[in-house]
Amino acid sequence: MGEAIQALEAYEVLREKLGDEATKKLIAYVDEKVKGEVATKADLELAKGELRAEIEKVKADLIKWMFLFWIGQVVSIVGILKIAGVF
């Protein structure tokens, strides 16, 4: 309710300075610009979904590279142990 009172007070101040028609045009212009700049809930949900998909992709790639690294480490250790004569 406080926002409505502030908007009404702002309208009254502008109307006194600019006149009724100019104030209405200014408010319409600001409303149009604000609606074009503010993200909607649907925009945020879409971005959240895209972010989740990207995170899942990165997780899968990370797990793949971790397994490749571990296999390389095991092969290296076995090779070193064979050279050392343990196996």
Overview of the molecule:
It is a single chain. The chain is an all-alpha fold. The chain has 2 domains: 38 residues; 48 residues. Helix content is 91%, strand content 0%. α1 packs across α2. It is rod-shaped and about 95 Å long. It starts with a helix and ends with a helix.
Topology:
Blueprint: H1 2-18, H2 20-37, H3 41-84
In short, what is this structure?
By secondary structure, the chain is mainly alpha-helical. It has helices at 2-18, 20-37, 41-84.
Please give the alpha-carbon distance between the first and last residues.
Answer: 80 Å
**By helix and strand content, what is the structural category?**
mainly alpha
Number of helices: 3
Element string (H = helix, E = strand): HHH
Major β-sheet annotation: none
Q: What amount of the residues lies in strands?
A: under 5%
Question: If you average the pLDDT, what whole number results?
Answer: 89
Rounded to an integer in angstroms, the radius of gyration calculated over CA atoms is 32 Å
**Which shape, going by the Cα principal axes?**
rod-shaped
Low-confidence stretches: none
**Count of domains:** 2
Strand tally, please?
0
Approximately how much helix is present in the residues? over 70%
